[in-house]
Amino acid sequence: MKTTLTIILTNLIIGNGILFFGGKSSFGQDVNYSLMVGMSIACVVFYFLFFRYSGFETYSNLKLILLSVLSCMAIVFLGNLFALLIKEPINEVLSNLPATLLMGIMGNILLFPISLILGLLNFGIITYLKSK
């Protein structure tokens, strides 16, 4: 439970900080609060389920690194989907499913460096807390 809480809080603080300050520093744009909410929901749900049911304690270091980075990418994809569901009516989202998937893929492409850094940070936190 300590690992789950630490990973969730770390990712929420860093991820929402990037989205908030990135939105504030963009050229006249407002902060995308629906994206912040969507990413937060995806982060909490994904990591809660992952740490509850995955048995990550037995994974090798390579598998844990790959899963840490891929989980960040999955959260970006799901967060974009949740943000779209918050902003738009569900029938419009489902009728434009290819555009919805494309938005998730583009979000992963744009945020890949952040996913990589957060994934490696998560790996470091997990291995540190596992060794204690």
Secondary structure elements and pairings:
Layout: H1 2-25, H2 33-53, H3 61-87, H4 90-95, H5 97-110, H6 112-131
Defining traits:
132 residues; mainly alpha; transmembrane helix; transmembrane; membrane; MotA/TolQ/ExbB proton channel domain-containing protein
Average pLDDT taken over every residue: 87
Helix proportion range: over 70%
What general form does the structure show? Answer: globular
* Helix count from the secondary structure assignment: 6
Q: Which runs of at least 5 residues are low in confidence (pLDDT < 50)? A: none
| Helix/strand class | mainly alpha
Helix and strand element order: HHHHHH
Gyration radius from CA atoms, angstroms: 15 Å
The beta-strand count equals 0
Description:
The protein is an all-alpha fold. It is 85% helix and 0% strand. The model has no long low-confidence stretch (mean pLDDT 87). Keywords: Membrane, Transmembrane, Transmembrane helix. The chain crosses the membrane at residues 7-27, 33-52, 64-85, 105-129. This is MotA/TolQ/ExbB proton channel domain-containing protein.
Q: What is shown here, in short?
A:
The chain is an all-alpha fold and 132 residues long.
